[in-house]
Predict the structure.
Amino acid sequence: MSDNNWPDPARPGVRSYPWAIKGRCQVPMWMGGTPSGFCDQPAFGVYIEGPTFRDGWTGEVRRMDGKWKGYSGGLCCPNHSGPNEFGPRVFQDGWSEGGRPMWCAVFHDFINLQESPAEFDERPWEAIQRLEGKKDA
Ligand SMILES: [Zn+2]
């Protein structure tokens, strides 16, 4: 894991640790087919991807957990599949050997890899599942 601070999407020009970023949900909202600002709810990290399936009736790709699925370039509130304030969060940290984004899952009070549990996976939901297993152990 790199020690570099990351650009904070909520504060242009500011860099902070990716697990400590807080701000407002940046999911665009739409009204009558036109952009209508952003969701703007409190957000505690970026979108957390979940397992998906293709709906055989509509052809639409949906999340198996029923959570919101969509594109956000920045922070997501819990309603838009972002982390809860005191829940686990993920951030991209490098790339897998297959060239896919590698995700690191940590708890909200993460300090560093020496003192705090963390899990890595190409599938962020898998990393979170293993991380939560550590908490219960
Ligand atoms: Zn939102």
In short: The longest helix spans residues 124-136. The chain has one domain: 6-136. Helices lie at 124-136. Residues 6-136 form one domain.
